[in-house]
Amino acid sequence: MNWSIIESRWNEYKAAAKRQWDKLSEGQLSGTRGNREYLLRRVQEAYAVSRIEAERQVADWQARQVDRLAPAAHGG
After folding, report:
1. Domain residue limits, the chain
2. CA distance 55 to 24
3. Rounded-to-10 torsion of CA 72, 32, 64, 60
4. DSSP assignment of the chain, as one string?
5. Residues with Cβ < 8 Å from 44, sequence gap 6 or more?
6. How many Cβ atoms sit within 10 Å of the Cβ of residue 59?
7. Going residue by residue through the chain (76 aa), what tens digit of pLDDT does each one get?
8. Whole-angstrom distance, CA of residue 76 vs CA of residue 48
9. Which CATH architecture has domain 3-64?
10. What residues have CB less than 8 Å from 6, skipping those under 6 apart?
11. Which of 3, 21, 29, 58 has its CA 20 to 30 A from that of 48?
12. Contact of 7 with 69, CB cutoff 8 Å
């Protein structure tokens, strides 16, 4: 998934981000407005991890995201 898609449709991806990083508040997630750098800093701060670890977590999460506007295989 291209990050620009996630950023442009952040409101659709926020819930998935909240499931991944439950220590981040709704305000912190909303405040990122899909900005990857801002999200990386919030993950680093909330989980006391290195920049490299935050990058790994965000990259792994990003790889699991799908285009939420694509036609769903289950028809819904």
Report:
1. 3-64
2. 16
3. 180
4. --HHHHHHTHHHHHHHHHHH-TTS-HHHHHHHTT-HHHHHHHHHHHHT--HHHHHHHHHHHHHH---TTSPPTT--
5. 50, 51, 53, 54
6. 13
7. 899 999 999 999 999 999 999 999 999 999 999 999 999 999 999 999 999 999 999 999 999 998 766 554 444 4
8. 39
9. Orthogonal Bundle (1.10)
10. 13, 34, 36, 62, 65
11. 3
12. no
Amino acid at the residue 4 = S
Structure tokens at 20: 């991944």
* Crossing angle (nearest 10°) for helices 10-20 and 51-64: 120
Token representation of residue 33: 């407005």
The Cα–Cα gap between 31 and 68 comes to: 21
Dist. CA 40–CA 43, nearest whole Å: 5
